[in-house]
Amino acid sequence: MLIKEFILPEGQTYVLNGVEELVVRAKARGLTKISTPALLAKLTSAGYFVSMNDLISLLNQISSVGSANKKEVTLDTAIPDSPKNTDDTVSKMAAQQIKKGMK
Question: What's the mean pLDDT in 28-52?
Answer without folding.
Answer: 89
